[in-house]
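Anyone? Bumping this.
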Amino acid sequence: MIQGVQIDLISSERLENLTTLEKVRLILEKVMEGNVVVLEKGLTPDEQSFLIETTMREITPDGFAGIEMETYSAGSESSHKSGGLFGGLFGKKESSTAGRLTVIGPANQMKTLKKDKDLISTWVSSK
Amino acid sequence: MSFLLKTKQRFAKLFGGLFKKKQMRIGIYGPPNAGKTTLSNRIVRDWTGDAVGPVSEIPHETRRARRKEGVKISDEKGNSITIDIVDTPGVTTKIDYKEFLEYGMQPDEAVVRAREATEGVAEAMHWLREDIDGVIYMLDSTQDPFVQVNIMLVGIIESRELPVIIVANKNDLPDASPARIKSAFPQHPVISISGLEGNNVDELYEKMIEYFG
Ligand SMILES: Nc1nc2c(ncn2[C@@H]2O[C@H](COP(=O)(O)OP(=O)(O)OP(=O)(O)O)[C@@H](O)[C@H]2O)c(=O)[nH]1
Ligand SMILES: [Mg+2]
């Protein structure tokens, strides 16, 4: 078989129907196989917190070394939206706190070359 | 804050000695090697005379959150706060034991350090979700602040609506750039200090009293 890296693009529709734990499991299963996962819609801060915690629990010597992750910053617009005058009154909607397109891959195979607010450039090596 | 909560706090302040109240827990968070333990030790030494834990140039020296209870910080005007200081393990999304070999560590020792570090990071995330009331987010100001883990962590802290002070540490070093940190987190107060030499920590104490009080 030709050498390469599998890339899994997961749609926001698929993500919306999953619980936090299911999302984190789905991402980590794929990344631990050596795949790069692209999420059409990013994770909420709470989901990110669980992703970091679960990633840590899966790390083994000479095995899985953790994840590399990049996302476009949600930008000041969304923090204004959620933290502004009405943020506290109406509560936050999931959609306003969730990040945007997100790339997650195995730490020992992936490296971010360049990241701007509108361009992420990553380099991925096959195993 | 609700009226009831305010009244409760006022009572707690008045009868601080009588009631066993829950102290505000301030977590010191940030990437490995930012200087979290150095600052925790300084705060605790300045205000209680004790220390919190060991410091090292090797990342992931702190692998268990450590708490020092009842640290009272005051200013000249007579304002003060009493808080618990929680020194946490440096947060990252990846740990490879081979990194520690470069510091001359033996492989078996490095594997143990890596395992403890992963548990420590998981624990730090857990504390943040359950037990922390305010955060000092520490960054080494000689490093690029725009890395994903900082953006994520500050996002997580914001989503929990915790008060946060960003500390731009190591301002004693020539290539320190607190300005870069200020531009990365314009929505929060940024204080530039040297936890090692003590530059400007008084400003941090004042900000802590104002922000966490
Ligand atoms: N020049 C300089 N060095 C500092 C300063 N603060 C800490 N350091 C050094 O940075 C290294 C790491 O300091 P620690 O306090 O152990 O950092 P930490 O954030 O607790 O690190 P972990 O526990 O590994 O996450 C040590 O070599 C310290 O002496 C500072 O203000 N200036
Ligand atoms: Mg430490």
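Late reply, but here is one note on the structure posted above: The CA atoms of residues 31 and 90 of chain B lie 5 Å apart.
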